[in-house]
Amino acid sequence: MEHNTEDRLRVGVITSSHGIKGEVKVYPTTDDNDRFKTLKKCYLSNGRETLEVNCTSCKFLKNMVILKFKEYDNINDIERFKNYDILVDREDAVPLVDGEFFICDVLDADVYDQNDERIGILDDVLETPANDVFVVKKDDGSEILIPVVPDFVFDVDTENKKVKVRTFEMVEADDSDDED
User: Fold this and answer.
1) Could you give phi then psi for residue 80, rounded to 5 degrees?
2) CA dihedral 58, 59, 60, 61 (to 10 degrees)
3) Whole-prediction pTM value?
4) Rounded to an integer, what distance in angstroms lies between the CA atom of residue 20 and that of residue 23?
5) Handedness of CA 35, 39, 43, 45 (dihedral sign)
């Protein structure tokens, strides 16, 4: 899941045009949809091309955000931006509270257990309604899933790209006593 180009963070993805006056429908990839209300300068990017644009209006429609950019006034100009990411400069990002982090800052972090033994690399973060889940790729190629809750994740050091988690051993039930 790509989230940034060094100093930019993805806040949404354009899914389609909206109406005929150059508005776009955006699927938000941020936890705070209200951040779009104050969005001014942002970037449209498909990985090969990045364009700076200025947001002039914001509306909400169900789970989507409708944005209008100063630079584009009709549907023909904006249709080509379908599937483009909407990026913001890191300094324009919503401030984090203590204990929060941007997903892009933990991707590829080394993951260690409670005994400081390396488990693997943080490969992805699944966003679920209950809590995020770290996908850790072990050195043998297998993956383990770790819920991002204090019982399991107790230290996230984005500066050093290091995450510490508590693991537990799964004990298989001995079914031999159940045989008749």
Assistant:
1) -70, -10
2) -130
3) 0.66
4) 7
5) positive
DSSP letters spanning 50-68: EEEEEEEEEEEETTEEEEE
User: What does the buried/exposed string (b/e) look like for 23-62 if buried means 16 or more CB atoms within 10 Å of the residue's CB?
Assistant: bbbbebbbeebebbeebeebbbbeeeeeeebebeebeeee
For 49, the 3-state DSSP assignment is: coil
Structure tokens at 23: 């508005």
**4: β partners:** 9
Sheet holding 118-127, edge to edge: 143-147, 132-138, 118-127, 110-112, 162-165, 153-157
Q: What is the pLDDT of residues 123-173, one digit of tens each?
A: 998 888 888 899 999 989 999 999 999 889 999 998 899 999 988 653 333
> For the chain, what's the residue count?
180
Interatomic CA distance for residues 19 and 17, integer angstroms: 7
d(CA 93, CA 89): 7
Dihedrals phi, psi of 36, to nearest 5 degrees: -70, -25
